Amino acid sequence: MLNETILISGATSGIGLSTAKILAKPGRKLIITGRRKELLQSVKNELVEKGAEVYIAQFDVRNKIEVESFFEQLPIEFQKIRVLVNNAGLAAGLDFIQNGDTDDWDQMIDTNIKGLLYMTRAAIKFLENTNGAQIVNVGSIAGKEVYPKGNVYCATKHAVDALSRAMRIDLQEKGIRVSSVNPGLVETEFSLVRFKGDSEKANAVYKGLEPLHGDDIAETIRYIVETPFRISIADLTIFASAQASSRDVIRK
Ligand code: NDP
Ligand code: 8X3
């Protein structure tokens, strides 16, 4: 659609960054968010080179006030949002429940569940005035299954799964389609963040297999976003070929 606006949370790296790059084209307006301002500025430059109009917003999705003031301050030309991609999220730590760090739990719950809720609630006012509106929630295979030491991260992604299904029902009358995209292993900054900068542990997650790339998930999101209005893609799970479930991964 010409002149449409797409809002992507967490576009400074990984899946969100790939999605922004793949969706960038002339006639499209992109709003990209994240906490790292310098990265947002450099991503904007790249997207503008591809012909998109871009608005960057630095804020923390955990902060309700910051989320609300971001939406209040949106320039008029970026207010006709057709698509919200709820992508910002993270895992913090990988520990048995009895050893879990409660600060890690707070961070995951506040980002993956509450942040997604704040973004969604505030965005609906804009989406409901736009034809063909869509919300794409980035869930995870961790929202469909659980695995050892994944406890709280898995719980947050199960919540995203439940919220996607609930939103699809609640927003049906407003004509807002809701899709859920659930990746398996994707090599991004995800594991580096989970292991707090320990690159050895992070690299081990993807050792001996070819994981998904951010672009693979971005292409799936592009497919959803560009699908005709009569179609509602409810739920997609995407694995690397070496993965068949959270716990069935073949490594060479
Ligand atoms: P990355 O760490 O590469 O990207 C995460 C993005 O989220 C960054 O842009 C980061 O921006 C943003 N973000 C994190 N916390 C906040 C916050 N509090 N406020 C605003 N932005 C935030 O990881 P991925 O690209 O892999 O992760 C994207 C999504 O995909 C997440 O929801 C993740 O759970 C999900 N996922 C990832 C999988 C994987 O294997 N990689 C598999 C399944 C799902 P900044 O740091 O600038 O704030
Ligand atoms: C990220 C994928 O399997 O590490 O959501 O939980 S996994």
Explain what the structure shows.
The structure is a single chain. With 252 residues, the protein is α/β, with parallel strands linked by helices. 40% of the residues lie in helices and 17% in strands. The chain has one domain (5-238): NAD(P)-binding Rossmann-like Domain (Rossmann fold, 3-Layer(aba) Sandwich). Strands 3-2-1-4-5-6-9 form a seven-stranded parallel beta sheet, with helices on both faces. It has a two-stranded parallel sheet with strand order 7-8. Strand 4, helix 4 (102-127) and strand 5 form a beta-alpha-beta unit. The longest helix is centred in the middle third of the chain and has 26 residues, at 102-127. It is globular, with a radius of gyration of 17 Å. The structure holds NADPH dihydro-nicotinamide-adenine-dinucleotide phosphate (NDP) and 2-hydroxyethylsulfonic acid. 2-hydroxyethylsulfonic acid binds next to loops. NADPH dihydro-nicotinamide-adenine-dinucleotide phosphate binds next to helix 1, helix 4 and helix 6.
Set down the secondary structure blueprint:
Blueprint: E1 4-8, H1 14-23, E2 28-34, H2 37-49, E3 53-58, H3 64-72, E4 81-86, H4 102-127, E5 134-138, H5 151-170, E6 177-183, E7 186-187, H6 190-194, H7 199-205, E8 212-213, H8 214-225, E9 235-238
Parallel strand pairs: 1-2, 1-4, 2-3, 4-5, 5-6, 6-9, 7-8
Helix pairs in contact: 1-8, 3-4, 4-5
The chain binds NADPH dihydro-nicotinamide-adenine-dinucleotide phosphate (NDP) and 2-hydroxyethylsulfonic acid (8X3).
Concise synopsis of the structure shown:
The protein is of the alpha/beta class and 252 residues long.
